[in-house]
Amino acid sequence: VFTLAIGNIKPVVEVKSRRVGGANYQVPVEVRPSRRLALAMRWLREAAKKRSEKSMALRLAGELLEASEGRGGAMKKRDEVHRMAEANKAFSHFRF
């Protein structure tokens, strides 16, 4: 369940700000494997903190189960990051 949840949360692309000719562009870039894992763990922790269960153990367990099923706060964050990258893919030629 844990590996499935982490695998579901891992982002493939993210956006980075790049200044070109006086304008800032959100440029989509691929996420390297070590950062993917770090981001997935961070998002899982943050989503668990925002849950309403009594103990952190229950919050984390609930978030892990939801992430393994493809839903929950951490999955929402991943989808949001992917949506940003998709919306800004016109600027991907600024990647250098």
From TrEMBL:
InterPro entries: Ribosomal_uS7, Ribosomal_uS7_bac/org-type, Ribosomal_uS7_dom, Ribosomal_uS7_dom_sf. One of its GO terms (biological process) is translation. Coiled coil: none annotated. Residues 1-89 form the Small ribosomal subunit protein uS7 domain. The keyword Ribonucleoprotein applies. It holds the Pfam family Ribosomal_S7. One of its GO terms (molecular function) is rRNA binding. Keywords: Ribonucleoprotein, Ribosomal protein, RNA-binding, rRNA-binding. It comes from the Bacteria. One of its GO terms (cellular component) is small ribosomal subunit. SUPFAM superfamilies: Ribosomal protein S7. Belongs to the universal ribosomal protein uS7 family. This is 30S ribosomal protein S7. The lineage of its organism: Bacteria, Pseudomonadati, Bacteroidota, Bacteroidia, Marinilabiliales.
